[in-house]
Amino acid sequence: QLQFLYFIVNFTNSQNMSAENLGLTSTFNAPDGKAGSWVEGPYGVDTVMVHSGNTPDEKTGAVLCPVYQSTTFVQPSVEEYLSKGYSYSRTKNPTVDALGTKIAALESGKGCHLFNTGMAATVTLLTAMLKTGDHVVITECSYGGTNRAARVLFEEKFGITFTFCDFTNLDTIEKAIKKDDKGNIITKLIFSESPANPVLTLTDIKAVSELAKKYNLLHAVDSTFATPVIMKPLDLGADFVVSSTTKYIDGHNMTVGGCIVWKDQELGDKVGLFQNIHGNGMAPWTGFLQLQAVKTMKLRVIKQSENAQKIAEFLQTHPKVDKVQYPGLKSFPQKELADRQHLNGLHGGMLWFEVKGGVEAGTKIMNTCQRPWSLCENLGATESIITCPAVFTHANMRKEDREKVGITDGFIRVSCGIEDADDLIRALKKSLDSL
């Protein structure tokens, strides 16, 4: 109960208390005290998750935000161009904006830009904030697409350098900050990922954000695995939150998307400019689907975290399991940080394990684990998923880089869904017992 109260207080204290600033607007401009107006706050996260950015339609009263499936928007006159806020959906769309309002409120941000994929968000952030000759300190363990973009696109094509290092050690991060021959700092950005995909190492976001400010650097955090239900990087001092909305925000294996949330308007405008240049904004229909799906994100994350805890505890007891990692386990190497940084006593739906017998045995588990498990990419969905990162999600990392951070060919990544935990455990047990 105390953890829950802390979660609500932490959420509301990090925001302006007005309904308007949380994206909660009255129906039909109803006056205070009438049906359709908002009761006085503060408002809990569940209420914001359902209602932020989603005002009943003024003309019809439709409860859901409409899908503005329109390329262009008519202007009243040349002089009144953009007086209604919209001109062309590559730049800005009302349905997508409604989702952005909601995500920004959940992340304690001032604004949110939405993209057609998570990688589009990451690439746009790096493009907007960096130029040739700049340097980035980045976690040595990140999503495989992020690693590849840094090496193949930005280093090879644009002359931007990256130092991949251990983000569990603050001294290592600080030592990676670079200067040129004249002593000028050329590092511009620290890019962290917490929990890291797929090894689940944690970054102390508050400490790294303080380090970034010490050197006048920007700090971006990929918090896809955490979600704002578990961690709010902007409240911990980060400049950007990057997330694949494909994962927990969608949560139903329906769509792909990404977002960047920010507090500083100037930084947000810069990201928006480069998003428009790239032309990689989210489509209205995707925005509509994710706008509905995110309403249940907290309920799903709670259930997924409960399932992950039960499954991790089961795996710890099985004689064929060599190693299991989950931030909720007492044996987790960064348990103190997990408990301090993660909200509401939740640690997410992701875990990983390895079995005795090495690669061959690990591959056999993935090839024989029956339903309700699904062998596929993606994570954060209602369906429970088993993934082989070395082949599926991180194959684009160099083999030596994968092995350095512990991603062996027999590494099993688990994304827990919302099924009955006993059914999931029974299927895992059958495969493990067959080894």
Describe what you observe in this structure.
By secondary structure, the protein is an alpha/beta fold. The protein has 15 helices and twelve strands. It has helices spanning 2-13, 45-51, 94-106, 118-129, 144-158, 170-176, 205-214, 227-230, 265-278, 284-293, 297-317, 335-341, 358-368, 399-404, 421-433, and strands at residues 111-115, 135-139, 161-165, 187-193, 218-222, 240-244, 258-262, 321-325, 350-355, 374-375, 385-387, 412-415. The strands form two sheets. A seven-stranded mixed beta sheet has the order 1-7-6-5-4-2-3, with helices on both faces. The chain has a five-stranded mixed beta sheet with strand order 8-9-12-11-10. α8 (227-230) links the parallel β5 (218-222) and β6. The chain starts with a helix and ends with a helix.
Layout: helices, strands, pairs:
Blueprint: H1 2-13, H2 45-51, H3 94-106, E1 111-115, H4 118-129, E2 135-139, H5 144-158, E3 161-165, H6 170-176, E4 187-193, H7 205-214, E5 218-222, H8 227-230, E6 240-244, E7 258-262, H9 265-278, H10 284-293, H11 297-317, E8 321-325, H12 335-341, E9 350-355, H13 358-368, E10 374-375, E11 385-387, H14 399-404, E12 412-415, H15 421-433
Parallel strand pairs: 2-3, 2-4, 4-5, 5-6, 10-11
Antiparallel strand pairs: 1-7, 6-7, 8-9, 9-12, 11-12
Fraction in beta strands:
5-15%
Calculate the mean pLDDT score and round it: 93
Structural class computed from helices and strand pairing: alpha/beta
Radius of gyration: 22 Å
